[in-house]
Amino acid sequence: MMAQSPVSIVSPRFCAPYPVDVAIVRKVLSGDFVVNDVNGNLLFKVKGSLLSLHGRRVILDVAGRPIVTLRRKILSAHSRWQVFRGDSSEAKDLIFSAKRSSMIQYKTKLHVFLANNTSDDVCDYTVKGSWFEKSCVVYAGDSSTIVAQMHKKFSAQSILLGKDKFMVAVYPNIDYAFIVALIVILDEINSSKNQTSHMNNNTAS
């Protein structure tokens, strides 16, 4: 089942009436991302500090203008991230938030709430996946309706260049800037989780 009318979350300009395949390439050393279409044309850049205490990332358009700002909510047990319009961090500019469905997870599951959804009971989107397998699926609500799918693309070149490459298939009429933001949040949550477990292992040894 595919969305019939455009689902604009970040902006209508990021909704296409056809499937959009994007490549999200993460530079391992800097933690920054570039997002291209299948022809290699730049769509977005993602900037931010991998080791930032405040967990802040900004998605920029081709001209370098901020589209959305992603912020990790401090002292949030479920790794809640909030996404704001432009470079804002004010409540009036909140677009959506995402959090892990539970504190302890083997397979990642995020619940996504749009800004006008003040209830934490019913989510607007769900992200399910195994970060170990580098794959995930984005669903509408808590249903089985798929709106996007991601998998990691392995190549000798990407390993040599120190880059991670994720291929994301975004379904027709779904806001692909929104989907990219979800993938970045998923990567951040799992990166911080890996850092924490690594620190714990070092402490124990």
UniProtKB/TrEMBL annotation:
Belongs to the LOR family. SUPFAM superfamilies: Tubby C-terminal domain-like. It comes from the Eukaryota. It holds the Pfam family LOR. This is Protein LURP-one-related 15. InterPro entries: LOR, LOR_sf, Tubby-like_C. Coiled coil: none annotated. It comes from Handroanthus impetiginosus.
